[in-house]
Amino acid sequence: MIDPLTKRRKDGTPYLRPDNIEVLLPALADLPRDTLLERARIRDRKHPDYVPSECLLHFVRASRLDNSDAWFERLYKVLVERVLRAVPRAEAGGNTALIVAESIRNAVFDRFVELLSKDRRQSDDKLDFFEIRFDLAVKRLRLDAQERAWREDNRSDALDQDSDQTEAEAVAATAVDPFEASIFSDPLFRDRMYLAIDDLPPEQSRTMHLLLLGWPIHSNDPAVMTIAKALGCSDRSVRNHRARALKTLSALFNPGDDQ
Questions:
Q1: pTM of structure
Q2: CA angle 205–211–215, rounded 5-degree value
């Protein structure tokens, strides 16, 4: 029997696995362990025997009830390989960029292992969302790690500060705001938007991610961490990055177009 998830939403309703996962789990549970492990090693998601990461994680968590660490270790090795593939190493860039990218990768891995270790000691609902949307959950770990890395990074990269502020503000004023609440509340649209932000030039991507976290561009309080401080540039540069990003994003997304 497949145990239900225990995490609950704010309204008290339980988190539920997608229907395809709920249907697949009992069938996988009936397989011999060697067969399940062999299928879990398949990387091609289009392969008919591919085991979704949501299912693989379930069996890793369920192994806590076994008295054998060997089964856990075999499944765990496959699972963490998937996590690391979701946060690949940087293949190019300067030494600093490579160091930061590796720091983000390690932070994601460490956080996931920490969550899994706690769950193995005692069942915890923090991994429940991973059994629902594994890729999205790992992506959130990566975004959190990125924000921490950018705050801690003391790089003095010369971000573009030469653009005219008046022009940037004019662009921002005419651009469609893709983060308008009624639009951004759609989870499918939001996921597409995060992917598009990741593809922006680094300074624009960083600016937009920090804006999404609610960081101010400027503050008169010296104790408040602002986007300008985090990126090591002027307020004007942050506004220019935001204006360029909004121009690109508004061109990519037409509100109401969910194709």
A1: 0.60
A2: 130
